[in-house]
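Sorry, can you check?
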Amino acid sequence: TQGPILTDNTGSIIVYKAASLGLAVGDEVTVNGPIRAYNKGFQFDYSKGDVTVEKTGSTTVAYPAALDITGAYADELLTTRVENEYAYYAKMTGTVAVSGNYFNFNIPGAETAVGSVYGATDDVKSWLEDGMECTLYGYFFSISKTNDAPKYINIIVTSVEPAAAVSTL
């Protein structure tokens, strides 16, 4: 709901506040404007009025292999991601924690870091239930703070894989 992720040969980046453009997965676009940094991630900020997006075609999309954001890696990101970076395709396995409009994600082994479903659409929200164990796939693109301390690993979810049911006999 906050904007699409664009990917080319150099990396992936969010076009912040461009959800109103109605782009779909596989749309090819040309984007012109400055790249800005926010919460340790790069973005085109469509809301600033100096970014243009033009749809030029469409293609089939195959997501890359997902980097596994484990609890230890998530905690490490809070302290080592000191430079701004482009988004990358990732996965997190853990438990959904719903609180009002917030869809967070507890990652086993993380002491501080919490996953955060960023800009969840109604479809994504319908896939998630409080307490649900699953793997989230999507684009990790920034880190948000609470009380001025880095805490949330923001991911734009592309799919959810529920944990396999365990049979007890």
About this structure: The helical segments are 71-80, 122-127. The first helix runs from residue 71 to 80. The chain has two helices and twelve strands.
